[in-house]
Specification:
heterodimer, A: 375 residues, Transcription Regulator spoIIAA, B: Rossmann fold, 2 domains, binds adenosine-5'-diphosphate, binds magnesium ion
Chain lengths: 375, 258
C-alpha cells in the first residue's frame, strides 16, 4: 500500500502531476515531499493533478491537494484536479471551504529589541517581587491574628491533618537519611583519623556536625521535596479548579483559610522531626564507633564533653526558620499557579527549587550570625 | 411605571489578561430581580467578564458596580459585605475536593453566621435537596458525576441566600430533564424571592424560557453586538450572526454543500 508521484511536462508552461495509489497519513509523506520539490524546482504556469489512479484518499491526501492549490494560487498560476473519484471529490468539498486556505501563521509577535526585552523581564521580575512581598506581608498579618485568637482563626482539623500527613509520614525517610548521613560521615572520617590514633574524636565530629548543621539541613531538604511540593500541588490544583476563586467570592481569604494552617503544621512538626533526625544521625555514628571496639558509653561520654547546649539549640532554632520557608514558599507557588494542568507541575518544581535555595541561603546567614555571636 | 433598580452596572469595562484585551469598553446593566443571560460563541470572554464583574481580577479600565458599590475599589469588610450578597457557581464547579457536599454547602454558613451546628446542617441539606442531590450529602466531589458537581456548586452558591446569583454554564453536562428542572428552579427563585440571576449559557431552549434580557458578546469586535429579549433578537436583530445563532443556522454557503 503506497502512493506514487510522477511528473510529466507537457510543454514549458504546463505539467501534469500524476498522483496514484493509497493516499493516507501513513503513505502520503514521500509523495508530499516529491510534489513540493517538483513545484519548487520548476513551477509550471498550469498545473494539472491527475488523480485517476488514486485508490484511496483521506484527509491527508486532501491536505496535499489543498496545499498544492494554495501554492499555485499564491503565484497566481493555474491549478486543476482531474479524474478524482466521486467519493473523494465529496471529501474535498468538505475540507475546501471555497475561500482558499491561507498558510498558517504563528501567533503574531512583535519582535522587540534587546533593551525592550530586558526592560520587560525586569518589570516582570519587579512585579513578581512585589507579589511575594505582599504575600509575606499578608501572611505575617494573618499569622499574628491567628496567634491572637487561635480558636477562631486556625482551622484545627485541617492543621492536624497536615501534621499527620506531612510529619508522621516523613518520619521514616528523615530517620533513614540522617542515620545514613551519620554513619557515612563517621566512616569517612574514621579512616584518616585512625592513622593518627584520633579515632575517638569521630564522636565529636559526628555529634557537632549533625546537631549544628546536618540534622536540621537534611530534614529541611527532605521536607522541601516532600511537603513543599505537596503544598504547591494541592493549592495549584485548587487554583486551576477555580476553588481559590470560589473562596474569594465567598469572602474568605485563601491565606487565612489554606495557608495559615499549613504553615503552623510545618512549624509544629519540623522541630520534632529535627529531634528525631539528630538522634538518628548520632545512632548512625555510633555504629561505626562501636565497631572500633569502643563501648557505647565512651561514645556518649565523648559527645557530652564535646557538645554544649547552644550547639544543639543553634540547630534547633534553625529548624523553625526552615519550616517557615518551606511552608510559605510551597503555598505561595501554589497560589501563583497559572491555568492548565501543566502549570501545577511547574509550581511544584518551582516550590522545591526556590525552597532549597532559600534554605541554603538561610543556613549561611545563620552561620554568620552564630559566628559573630561566638556560638 | 417606576424605573427598576439597577443592581449591577458595568461602565466602559475593558477586561482581559495582562496586555491582551478580551473585551473592550462594554457597558450594560442588570435590573433587580431579572434573569440576565450572557451569550456568545465559546472563547469570546463570557467567563472572563463574569469574573471581572465579581471582582476576581483587576479590571483594565472602567467600573463594575454591584448594588451601587464599586467592586474594584472596595476593600476589607466592605468587600466581604459585597461578596455576601452574591453567590457564584463556576464553570468547573469549583467544589472543595477535601470536603463532602454537605460540608461544601455548609462552609459559608460556618464562616459568616453563628447558627448552631444542626441548623447549619439542616439548611445545607435543604439547599442540596433543592438541586435534587438528596442522599448524596456525604459524598466527596470526586465520587459524583460532573453534572452533579455542577448542581452541588449551585446549591453552595445559594447557601447564604444571596441577592444575586452568578452561574457560569450551569446546564453544561446536565441531562435535558435536570436542565429543565434547573430552569424551573431559577425562575421560581427569581419570581418568588426576587433574586437576580446573571447566567452564562449556550442552551437556547433555556434562554428562551427563562431570560428577561440578554447580551450577546462578540470575539472579533470585542464588545456587545446585541442586547434585548431573546425572542426579539431572534426575529428582529440587525446583526446577521445573532439572528443565525438564535435560529441555529450555519452560514448559508456552508449549508449548500451538504
Ligand atoms: N488565564 C488566562 N490567561 C490568558 N488568557 C486567557 C485565560 N483564560 C482565558 N483566556 C483567554 O480569554 C478568552 C476568553 O476566555 P473565556 O472567558 O474563558 O471564554 P468563554 O466565553 O468561553 O467563557 C479566550 O480566548 C482565552 O484564550
Ligand atoms: Mg467560559
Amino acid at each position: 500500500m503506497s502512493a506514487h508521484f510522477q511528473r510529466n511536462d507537457i510543454d514549458s508552461n504546463s505539467s501534469v502531476f500524476k498522483i496514484s495509489g493509497v493516499l493516507n497519513s501513513k503513505s502520503v509523506g514521500p509523495v508530499w515531499r516529491q510534489a513540493m520539490l517538483a513545484l519548487d524546482d520548476n513551477p509550471p504556469k498550469n498545473l494539472t493533478i491527475d488523480t485517476s489512479e488514486v485508490e484511496y484518499c483521506d484527509g491527508a491526501g486532501i491536505g496535499l491537494f489543498i496545499e498544492l492549490n494554495r501554492r499555485q494560487n499564491e503565484k497566481k498560476f493555474g491549478f486543476e484536479i482531474v479524474g478524482l473519484k466521486e467519493e473523494f471529490q465529496r471529501l474535498l468539498n468538505v475540507f475546501d471551504t471555497g475561500k482558499g486556505i491561507q498558510k498558517l501563521k504563528g501567533p503574531e509577535k512583535q519582535e522587540d529589541g534587546l533593551f525592550v526585552n530586558w526592560g520587560k523581564s525586569f518589570c516582570s521580575l519587579l512585579k513578581q517581587l512585589s507579589e511575594e512581598i505582599i504575600f509575606i506581608g499578608s501572611l505575617s498579618c494573618a499569622m499574628i491574628q491567628a496567634i491572637r485568637s487561635p480558636k477562631k482563626k486556625i482551622r484545627w482539623k485541617d492543621m492536624w491533618g497536615a501534621v499527620i500527613e506531612g510529619g508522621i509520614g516523613a518520619l521514616p525517610i528523615v530517620v533513614l537519611i540522617n542515620f545514613l548521613v551519620g554513619l557515612i560521615m563517621a566512616f569517612q572520617a574514621a579512616i584518616p583519623m585512625k592513622q593518627f590514633g584520633a579515632d575517638i574524636f569521630v564522636a565529636d565530629l559526628v555529634s557537632l556536625s549533625i546537631l549544628r548543621e546536618l540534622g536540621p539541613l537534611m530534614t529541611a531538604i527532605v521536607l522541601a521535596g516532600r511537603t513543599g511540593s505537596a503544598f504547591a500541588a494541592e493549592l495549584g490544583t485548587m487554583k486551576v479548579n477555580e476553588e481559590i476563586d470560589a473562596l474569594h467570592t465567598m469572602g474568605l481569604n485563601p491565606i487565612n483559610f489554606l495557608v495559615i494552617n499549613r504553615v503552623f503544621a510545618v512549624i509544629i512538626f519540623m522541630p520534632i522531626l529535627t529531634l528525631f533526625a539528630d538522634l538518628a544521625g548520632l545512632m548512625g555514628g555510633s555504629v561505626v564507633f562501636t565497631s572500633f571496639g569502643y563501648p557505647m558509653i565512651t561514645y556518649f561520654n565523648q559527645i557530652i564533653n564535646a557538645v554544649q547546649l547552644h550547639d544543639f539549640l543553634g540547630g534547633f532554632v534553625k529548624s523553625f526558620a526552615f519550616a517557615l520557608i518551606i511552608a510559605s514558599v510551597g503555598c505561595l507557588k501554589g497560589l501563583e499557579t497559572k491555568t492548565g494542568a501543566s502549570a501545577v507541575g511547574k509550581s511544584a518544581t518551582n516550590a522545591v527549587v526556590t525552597g532549597l535555595i532559600l534554605i541554603i541561603l538561610t543556613d549561611g546567614i545563620f552561620s554568620i550570625i552564630y559566628y559573630f555571636l561566638g556560638i | 411605571m417606576t424605573e427598576k433598580k439597577k443592581i449591577i452596572e458595568a461602565r466602559n469595562m475593558s477586561v482581559g489578561y495582562g496586555d491582551t484585551v478580551i473585551l473592550k469598553e462594554v457597558t450594560f446593566h442588570v435590573n433587580e430581580g431579572e434573569i440576565f443571560i450572557i451569550l456568545g460563541g465559546s472563547g469570546c470572554g463570557k467567563s472572563t467578564l463574569l469574573k471581572n464583574l465579581i471582582g476576581l481580577y483587576d479590571i483594565i479600565s472602567g467600573d463594575a458596580l454591584i448594588d451601587g458599590q464599586n467592586i474594584g475599589k472596595a476593600e476589607g469588610q466592605e468587600l466581604v459585605n459585597i461578596f455576601n450578597k452574591i453567590g457564584v457557581s463556576y464553570q468547573s464547579g469549583a467544589l472543595f475536593g477535601s470536603m463532602t457536599l454537605l460540608e461544601n454547602v455548609m462552609l459559608p454558613l460556618e464562616e459568616f453566621t453563628d447558627l448552631p451546628q444542626d441548623a447549619r446542617e439542616m439548611i445545607a441539606a435543604m439547599k442540596l435537596r433543592l438541586v435534587n442531590l438528596e442522599g448524596f450529602e456525604h459524598f466527596m466531589p470526586s465520587e459524583i458525576s460532573g453534572g452533579m458537581q455542577k448542581r452541588a456548586a449551585i446549591a453552595r452558591s445559594m447557601a447564604l441566600d444571596p441577592q444575586i446569583i452568578f452561574l457560569d454554564e450551569p446546564s453544561a453536562g446536565l441531562d435535558p430533564i435536570t436542565s429543565a428542572e434547573l430552569d424551573q428552579l431559577i425562575m421560581r427563585l427569581a419570581k418568588n424571592l426576587g433574586i437576580t440571576f446573571v447566567i452564562v449559557t449556550h442552551e437556547l431552549d433555556s434562554v428562551f424560557t427563562i431570560a428577561d434580557r440578554c447580551i450577546f458578546l462578540d470575539k472579533v469586535s470585542k464588545g456587545i453586538i446585541a442586547e434585548g429579549h431573546p425572542k426579539e433578537l431572534k426575529e428582529h436583530s440587525k446583526v446577521d450572526f445573532v439572528k443565525r445563532f438564535f435560529n441555529r443556522e450555519v452560514e448559508t454557503n456552508q449549508k449548500e454543500k451538504i
